[in-house]
């Protein structure tokens, strides 16, 4: 008899949850949110423009209506700055011999930088026959002040280092590259840049966990797109309805859904990232705010507005084989009409190309859910990526499937295996 009551209880719970999903996640709401996010008023939501600021305000208002806690004080905006150094000039000497300015490239976010042998900079060398690109990256990632002498055998590659002067986070360390086979006893280098600051913001809302508040499950998307560009068919606004207003619509509706259920044991973080299209800076900044071992799972949602290669009621998961999270989601959908599949486009390296990647590199089971036919997506990065091209009813079913399949992880009943970082490139 107890087993009968248990089965009846489970069935009743599933029925109630399904009713809740149908009441909150519906095509009417999907259309409402999509039409706002992909409207011309937001001018294509390019990072750093007034259009994306309007989008951030709209998402904040939706998070507030859903009843989420703001990420910072009274604001849902997770604000940060990016810097772009523009080169003005450089002078240098090695053992009192003047350097050719073309042979010095300084990577810094300081307007004026002076370096000499007394400043404690590490002296490093890229020697002939070594992997030039790998060595350069290793010195940048070391986050230590260094003067790097580059063997003249790399003279043809050396000017490319100027390309490293791009949009970046504020840096405490500086790296000076000097072309030449020097081992100086004394040196001086002075570089000047104009530093342009771009202020950006993710939009983040929190639903605290009941019994495991320090364990996090993340639902995310990016809300930026390409802005205004070259006209196509007379339209210069790249609205990004599928890329990725679709994912952001899902995040907003999932926030409403889980708030309404009110039974999440783990803390849920709902995040709309900025600057994905120009380097993934929003998710990079976001990932720095969390200890990776406390993030149990990340559901990144991107481009779910069109049918997958399997047709309706289906989607794929990038990096499916890198954790058992996809298998958990499939199991939670047994008996339904919906199916998740492994990524069918492994040659496209999608696992590394979206906002899940930063946390995945830290071992978090962080995956992207998508339906995009990346071998022949007709409106990808086009001004024709409009709401009218989306299958909103199918998109609604995908969002419901994400809600249903993630519940055991949100409830703390399932914990996906960690991504093995040594296998990541």
Automatic annotation (TrEMBL):
Keyword Signal: yes
Signal peptide: 1-18
Alphabetized Gene3D superfamilies for the sequence: Zn peptidases
Peptidase M28 domain mapped to chain residues: 202-404
GO molecular function: aminopeptidase activity; metalloexopeptidase activity
Single biological process term from Gene Ontology: proteolysis
Keyword hit for Protease: yes
Alphabetical keyword list: Aminopeptidase, Hydrolase, Protease, Signal
The protein, known as: Aminopeptidase
Protein species of origin: Flavisolibacter tropicus
């Amino acid at each position: 008899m107890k087993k009968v009551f248990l089965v009846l209880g489970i069935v009743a719970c599933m029925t109630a949850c399904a009713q809740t999903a149908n009441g909150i996640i519906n095509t009417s709401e999907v259309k409402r949110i999509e039409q706002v996010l992909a409207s011309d008023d937001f001018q294509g939501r390019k990072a750093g423009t007034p259009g994306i600021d309007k989008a951030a305000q709209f998402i904040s208002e939706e998070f507030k209506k859903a009843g989420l806690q703001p990420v910072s004080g009274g604001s849902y905006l997770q604000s940060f700055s990016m810097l772009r150094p523009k080169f003005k000039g450089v002078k240098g000497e090695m053992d009192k011999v003047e350097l050719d300015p073309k042979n010095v490239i300084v990577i810094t976010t300081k307007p004026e930088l002076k370096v000499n042998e007394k400043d404690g900079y590490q002296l490093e060398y890229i020697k002939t026959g070594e992997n030039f690109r790998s060595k350069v990256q290793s010195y940048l990632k070391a986050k230590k002040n260094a003067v790097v002498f580059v063997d003249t055998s790399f003279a043809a590659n050396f000017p490319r280092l100027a390309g490293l002067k791009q949009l970046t986070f504020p840096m405490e360390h500086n790296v000076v590259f000097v072309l030449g086979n020097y081992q100086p006893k004394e040196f001086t280098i002075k570089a000047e840049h104009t530093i342009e600051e771009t202020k950006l913001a993710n939009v983040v809302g929190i639903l605290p966990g009941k019994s495991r508040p320090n364990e996090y499950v993340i639902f995310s998307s990016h809300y930026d797109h390409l802005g205004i560009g070259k006209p196509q068919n007379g339209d210069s606004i790249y609205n990004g309805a599928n890329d990725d207003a679709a994912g952001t619509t899902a995040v907003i509706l999932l926030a409403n859904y889980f708030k309404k259920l009110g039974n999440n044991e783990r803390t849920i973080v709902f995040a709309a990232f900025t600057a994905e299209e120009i380097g993934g800076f929003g998710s990079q900044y976001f990932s720095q705010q969390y200890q990776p071992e406390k993030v149990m799972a990340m559901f990144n949602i991107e481009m779910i507005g069109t049918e997958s290669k399997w047709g309706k009621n289906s989607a794929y998961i990038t990096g499916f084989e890198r954790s058992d999270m996809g298998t958990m989601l499939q199991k939670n959908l047994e008996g339904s009409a919906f199916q998740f599949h492994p990524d069918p486009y492994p040659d496209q390296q999608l696992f590394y190309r979206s906002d899940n990647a930063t946390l995945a590199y830290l071992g978090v089971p962080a995956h992207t859910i998508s339906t995009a036919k990346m071998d022949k997506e007709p409106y990808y990065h086009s001004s024709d990526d409009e709401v009218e091209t989306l299958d909103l009813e199918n998109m609604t079913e995908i969002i419901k499937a994400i809600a249903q399949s993630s519940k055991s992880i949100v409830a703390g009943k399932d914990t996906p295996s960690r991504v093995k970082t040594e296998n990541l490139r």
